[in-house]
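Below is one protein, fold included:
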Amino acid sequence: MNNNVYKIVLLTIGLILFGITLYVYRPVQNRYTRITVVGDSQTKVAPDTAQITFSVVTQNAQALNAQQENSKKAKPSSKRSKPRRKTLILKLKPAIIV
Protein backbone atom coordinates (compact mmCIF):
# COMPACT_ATOMS: atom_id res chain seq x y z
CA MET A 1 0.00 0.00 0.00
CA ASN A 2 2.90 2.36 0.68
CA ASN A 3 3.99 1.73 -2.88
CA ASN A 4 0.62 2.94 -4.25
CA VAL A 5 0.64 6.08 -2.06
CA TYR A 6 4.20 6.80 -3.19
CA LYS A 7 3.12 6.50 -6.87
CA ILE A 8 0.07 8.76 -6.34
CA VAL A 9 2.18 11.44 -4.60
CA LEU A 10 4.78 11.36 -7.37
CA LEU A 11 2.07 11.48 -10.06
CA THR A 12 0.39 14.44 -8.30
CA ILE A 13 3.70 16.33 -7.98
CA GLY A 14 4.44 15.61 -11.66
CA LEU A 15 1.02 16.89 -12.77
CA ILE A 16 1.40 20.03 -10.64
CA LEU A 17 4.87 20.71 -12.11
CA PHE A 18 3.53 20.07 -15.61
CA GLY A 19 0.65 22.51 -14.99
CA ILE A 20 3.01 25.16 -13.64
CA THR A 21 5.27 24.71 -16.68
CA LEU A 22 2.32 25.13 -19.05
CA TYR A 23 1.19 28.24 -17.18
CA VAL A 24 4.63 29.87 -17.19
CA TYR A 25 5.39 29.14 -20.85
CA ARG A 26 1.90 29.83 -22.22
CA PRO A 27 1.71 31.81 -25.48
CA VAL A 28 1.12 35.50 -24.82
CA GLN A 29 -1.01 37.41 -27.30
CA ASN A 30 0.63 40.60 -28.50
CA ARG A 31 -1.99 43.32 -28.43
CA TYR A 32 0.20 45.84 -30.20
CA THR A 33 1.20 45.78 -33.84
CA ARG A 34 4.56 47.36 -34.48
CA ILE A 35 5.82 48.65 -37.77
CA THR A 36 9.44 49.71 -37.93
CA VAL A 37 10.57 51.82 -40.87
CA VAL A 38 14.14 52.93 -41.42
CA GLY A 39 15.22 55.12 -44.32
CA ASP A 40 17.71 57.64 -45.58
CA SER A 41 17.36 60.19 -48.33
CA GLN A 42 19.33 63.02 -49.87
CA THR A 43 18.26 65.65 -52.34
CA LYS A 44 19.81 68.61 -54.07
CA VAL A 45 17.76 71.78 -54.35
CA ALA A 46 18.70 75.14 -55.78
CA PRO A 47 18.57 77.90 -53.15
CA ASP A 48 15.65 80.28 -53.40
CA THR A 49 17.16 83.11 -51.37
CA ALA A 50 20.42 84.97 -51.44
CA GLN A 51 21.83 87.57 -49.11
CA ILE A 52 23.93 90.33 -50.57
CA THR A 53 25.48 92.90 -48.30
CA PHE A 54 27.07 96.14 -49.46
CA SER A 55 27.56 99.58 -48.03
CA VAL A 56 27.69 103.08 -49.38
CA VAL A 57 29.74 105.69 -47.53
CA THR A 58 29.17 109.37 -48.12
CA GLN A 59 30.57 112.32 -46.23
CA ASN A 60 28.85 115.67 -46.28
CA ALA A 61 28.41 118.64 -44.00
CA GLN A 62 24.67 117.99 -43.65
CA ALA A 63 23.24 114.56 -42.73
CA LEU A 64 20.26 115.07 -45.05
CA ASN A 65 22.52 115.76 -48.04
CA ALA A 66 24.64 112.69 -47.24
CA GLN A 67 21.51 110.53 -47.01
CA GLN A 68 20.26 111.80 -50.40
CA GLU A 69 23.64 111.12 -51.99
CA ASN A 70 23.62 107.59 -50.52
CA SER A 71 20.21 106.99 -52.07
CA LYS A 72 21.50 108.10 -55.48
CA LYS A 73 24.55 105.84 -55.19
CA ALA A 74 22.51 102.82 -54.09
CA LYS A 75 19.92 103.03 -56.92
CA PRO A 76 22.14 101.67 -59.74
CA SER A 77 22.95 98.55 -57.73
CA SER A 78 19.28 97.96 -56.92
CA LYS A 79 18.38 98.08 -60.64
CA ARG A 80 20.54 95.01 -61.24
CA SER A 81 18.74 92.96 -58.65
CA LYS A 82 14.96 93.09 -58.97
CA PRO A 83 13.95 91.48 -55.66
CA ARG A 84 12.92 93.58 -52.71
CA ARG A 85 15.51 95.66 -50.95
CA LYS A 86 15.59 95.92 -47.21
CA THR A 87 17.63 98.39 -45.18
CA LEU A 88 18.61 96.77 -41.93
CA ILE A 89 21.08 99.27 -40.51
CA LEU A 90 21.45 102.98 -41.16
CA LYS A 91 24.35 104.60 -39.34
CA LEU A 92 25.12 108.28 -39.22
CA LYS A 93 28.58 109.02 -37.84
CA PRO A 94 29.58 112.65 -37.63
CA ALA A 95 33.08 113.20 -38.96
CA ILE A 96 35.11 115.94 -37.36
CA ILE A 97 37.47 117.51 -39.86
CA VAL A 98 40.17 119.72 -38.39
About this structure: Residues 2-24 form the longest helix (23 residues). The CA atoms of residues 1 and 44 lie 90 Å apart. The helical segments are 2-24, 63-80.
